[in-house]
Amino acid sequence: MKENTYRAIGATTFLSPVPAVVVSCRGTQEGFDADNLITIAWAGVVNSDPPMLSVSVRPERHSYPQIVQSGEFIVNLIDKPLCKAADFCGVKSGRDVDKFAALGLDKRYVEGFSCAAIASAPAFACCKVEQQIHLGTHDMFIGRVHQVYVREDLFDEDGSLHLERAGLIAYAHGQYFPLRERPEGFFGYSVAREEVIRRRLIEPYKKPAPKKTPGKGRKA
Ligand SMILES: Cc1cc2nc3c(=O)[nH]c(=O)nc-3n(C[C@H](O)[C@H](O)[C@H](O)COP(=O)(O)O)c2cc1C
Fold first, then answer.
1. pTM
2. pLDDT < 70 regions, the chain
3. Is residue 133 in a domain?
4. Can you tell me the distance from the alpha carbon of 175 to that of 41, in angstroms, rounded to the nearest whole number?
């Protein structure tokens, strides 16, 4: 077998893909107390129980003092229809632009939080800051998730959640990619029984057979 060769490209933040999320925030002090949105690629899950997410923000962002002042943020997951808006939120500052208004996005306020989520997002997680860690260029805010809201259309009638239908956006090497609807596998599929693979990976994604239409010149 031919052996791969590799090129050393230096010490970079090369983890890929990462989620591209849009984080809602709103400060408490004058000049910072309007709803704002910032796109974040340096976001992650950092604990299961209690559930905690992290977002890393540069101090020069308008969002930074907003999160510090309020001690809260909302992580909006991004799908294909929101992809361009997410890019906009990552190149324009809330210092100069009302991003909700500029993008025509509706706001969704939820109990216990002063900042507004994006009303069309597939899902959003509402977090209260537990820790702020200065790392260098960025400060990492570790937020405890208080509630997660998922758009109704992503549930089946039996209550099962189908996040794969959202076409969530992944970010890799400066580009946005909507995740394919059909999964390659599921947690534990490498060791799952054939019957489980069929039920979870093959049957739900079978395309219905095309309807037969009568051929040209033939009597129906
Ligand atoms: C795809 C993408 C990912 C980004 N990730 C981060 C990030 O993780 N942390 C950060 O501080 N800025 C990040 N930015 C830059 C901010 O989103 C951008 O500077 C934004 O305009 C800041 O808005 P604000 O000044 O209203 O806070 C990212 C931008 C893009 C387009």
1. 0.93
2. 212-220
3. yes
4. 11
Q: Is residue 170 part of a domain?
A: yes
**What is the pLDDT at residue 132?**
98
For residue 148, what are the β-bridge partners?
A: 125
CA of 95 to the centre of ligand 1 (A): 13
Can you give the pLDDT at residue 212?
67
Q: What DSSP character marks residue 157?
A: T
The verdict on residue 102 lying in a domain is yes
Q: Please indicate whether residue 141, judged by its CB atom, sits closer than 6 Å to ligand 1.
A: no
Ligand 1 mutation target, pool 26, 33, 35, 40, most atoms within 8 A of CB:
40
Q: How far is the CA of 41 from the centre of ligand 1 (A)?
A: 8
What is residue 220's predicted lDDT score, i.e. its pLDDT?
47
Question: For residue 88, with 0-12 CB atoms within 10 Å meaning exposed, 13-18 middle and 19 or more buried, which class applies?
Answer: middle
DSSP H or E stretch at residue 146: strand 139-150
Which atom, in ligand 1's list, is nearest to the CA of 63? Answer: 27
The rounded distance, in Å, linking the Cα atoms of 145 and 128 is 7
| Residue ranges making up the domain that contains 125 | 18-178
Q: Is position 131 within any domain?
A: yes
Q: Enter the tokens of residue 38.
A: 């910032």
Q: Atom 6 in ligand 1: which residue has the minimum CA distance?
A: 40
Cα gap 155→162, rounded to integer Å: 6
171 touches ligand 1 (CB under 6 Å)? yes
Question: Is residue 163 a contact partner of residue 122, using CB atoms and an 8 Å limit?
Answer: yes
Residue nearest (by alpha carbon) to ligand 1 atom 30: 90
CA of 59 to the centre of ligand 1 (A): 11
